[in-house]
């Protein structure tokens, strides 16, 4: 592998690992706020206990997410300085605001929420976790605006002397049509990830008959989140696909490995080579344009158009990666949603779930996490060879003078750090999931939480 391939691999590893914790932070913060509101409205102690448990899971996940985010920014500066030099004026405001939201707003108010249990009044204490939940959403929206610029560059002008991009309107950058479509899709996927974790913990602890009623509630909340998040992901994904078709037609063609421009294009559910595939007639045209009779541009025609517009070279992404990541993203996500629906059905009216259902539920968090990662793999690899679509290629963005040895050494270092973080996070989550609901985070004894002052 040359330096470009290693640098791309490093970025993929660092970013995908970081994103394992981002959707959890988004969904767990909103769930914590929702549970605390339910406790305040109903006065039922199980909601207080679940609020504490989910909040502790949020704290652990947020802490690891911050560390992995720092590593991501470090490798960005190490390996992509040319990209930062040309587009720093565009990316600077988004990264700065997102950093302030994550490190100051969210971290500060999360600390106030946890340590303010017996010190803050009821409305103020609730407000702290609501601020955290809103902050995670704002953080996601702003950082997605930066990514959406790479998919569909807007709100910039190029300096004719330096060639650098200058931001012309921060508002237009945020309201990029790709960002407006990607944000609800990303949020829906985050709901699935958090719901699956809560379902797994709730089902496992319910079976142990320890605080069974409360954990049964947690499991059903997680199942509803996973099922509803799956439905919303499908709806928002359909809209995002149509937007992407308009701004990056090559990406949709790569998703189907469609080489020839086709009217009423089918969608392959499964394919083995060019000679065998199971197709749904006209489905790709519906996904791309909302019409079964729409014409979808093929890879060969788009390659010719891009060559004429941008000069000689290959503008075709890695077709097998785009083809299979797109299908696996949809299939794995649907499987998670269907399992959640099955759990809700099998546990309706207080029914006890079967043993096999509980064992399967423990593994459920792997599915939406995989679907989220596959979605980002498709989004980024199917944009290749562009780093900012239509403006500059990936090869133009890496740091000058960077060697394969430097990239490999830093990649191994990042992998070692991430390996340690994975063990720490898993052990902490397992520790929290095993404790009685009233157990404080920093106590080894099964003591009740301190009495609240409100």
Written overview of the protein:
- The structure is a single chain.
- Mean pLDDT is 90; it is low at 440-454.
- The chain contains 15 helices and eight strands.
- The strands form four sheets. A two-stranded antiparallel ribbon has the order 1-2.
- 44% of the residues are buried.
- Helices cover 71% and strands 6% of the residues.
- The longest helix has 36 residues, at 212-247.
- The protein has helices spanning 3-19, 22-42, 45-79, 81-115, 122-151, 170-174, 177-207, 212-247, 249-256, 283-289, 299-310, 319-346, 355-363, 366-381, 404-434, and strands spanning 156-158, 165-167, 262-263, 267-272, 276-280, 295-296, 386-388, 392-393.
List the helices and strands and how they pair.
Blueprint: H1 3-19, H2 22-42, H3 45-79, H4 81-115, H5 122-151, E1 156-158, E2 165-167, H6 170-174, H7 177-207, H8 212-247, H9 249-256, E3 262-263, E4 267-272, E5 276-280, H10 283-289, E6 295-296, H11 299-310, H12 319-346, H13 355-363, H14 366-381, E7 386-388, E8 392-393, H15 404-434
Antiparallel strand pairs: 1-2, 3-6, 4-5, 7-8
Summarize the structure in short.
With 454 residues, the chain is mostly helical. The chain is 71% helix and 6% strand.
Oligomer: single chain
Largest sheet: spatial strand order: 1-2
Distance between the termini: 61 Å
Series of secondary-structure elements, N-terminal to C-terminal: HHHHHEEHHHHEEEHEHHHHEEH
Features:
454 residues; mainly alpha; two-stranded antiparallel sheet; two-stranded antiparallel ribbon; globular
């Amino acid at each position: 592998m040359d330096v470009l391939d290693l640098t791309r691999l490093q970025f993929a590893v660092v970013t995908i690992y970081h994103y394992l914790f981002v959707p959890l932070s988004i969904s767990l913060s909103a769930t914590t706020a929702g549970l605390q509101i339910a406790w305040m409205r109903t006065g039922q102690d199980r909601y207080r206990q679940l609020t504490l448990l989910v909040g502790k899971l949020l704290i652990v996940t947020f802490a690891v997410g911050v560390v992995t985010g720092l590593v991501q920014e470090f490798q960005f500066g190490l390996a992509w300085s040319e990209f930062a030099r040309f587009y720093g004026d565009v990316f600077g405001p988004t990264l700065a605001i997102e950093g302030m939201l994550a490190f100051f707003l969210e971290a500060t108010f999360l600390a106030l929420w946890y340590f303010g249990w017996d010190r803050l009044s009821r409305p103020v204490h609730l407000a702290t976790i609501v601020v955290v939940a809103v902050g995670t959403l704002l953080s996601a929206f702003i950082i997605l605006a930066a990514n959406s610029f790479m998919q569909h560059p807007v709100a910039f002008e190029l300096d004719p002397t330096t060639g650098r991009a200058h931001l012309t309107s921060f508002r237009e950058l945020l309201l990029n049509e790709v960002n407006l479509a990607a944000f609800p899709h990303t949020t829906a996927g985050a709901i699935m990830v958090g719901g699956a974790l809560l379902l797994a913990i709730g089902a496992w602890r319910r079976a142990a008959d320890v605080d069974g009623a409360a954990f049964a509630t947690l499991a059903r909340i997680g199942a509803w989140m996973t099922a509803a998040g799956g439905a919303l992901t499908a709806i928002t994904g359909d809209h995002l696909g149509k937007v992407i078709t308009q701004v990056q037609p090559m990406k949709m063609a790569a998703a189907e490995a469609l080489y020839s421009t086709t009217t009423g294009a089918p969608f392959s559910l499964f394919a083995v080579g060019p000679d065998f595939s199971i197709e749904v007639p006209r489905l790709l045209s519906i996904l791309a344009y909302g019409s079964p009779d729409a014409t979808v541009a093929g890879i060969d025609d788009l390659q010719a158009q891009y060559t004429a517009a941008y000069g000689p070279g290959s503008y075709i992404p890695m077709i097998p990666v785009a083809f299979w990541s797109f299908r696996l993203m949809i299939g794995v996500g649907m499987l998670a949603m269907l399992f959640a629906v099955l759990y809700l059905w099998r546990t309706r009216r207080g029914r006890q779930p079967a043993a096999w259902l509980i064992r399967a539920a423990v593994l459920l968090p792997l599915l939406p996490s995989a679907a989220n990662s596959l979605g980002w793999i498709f989004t980024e690899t199917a944009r290749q060879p562009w780093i900012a679509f239509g403006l500059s290629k990936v090869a133009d963005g890496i740091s000058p003078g960077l060697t394969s040895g430097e990239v490999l050494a830093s990649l191994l270092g990042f992998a070692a750090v991430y390996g340690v973080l994975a063990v720490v996070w898993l052990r902490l989550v397992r520790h929290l999931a095993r404790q009685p609901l009233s157990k404080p985070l920093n106590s080894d004894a099964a003591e009740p939480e301190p009495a609240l002052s409100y």
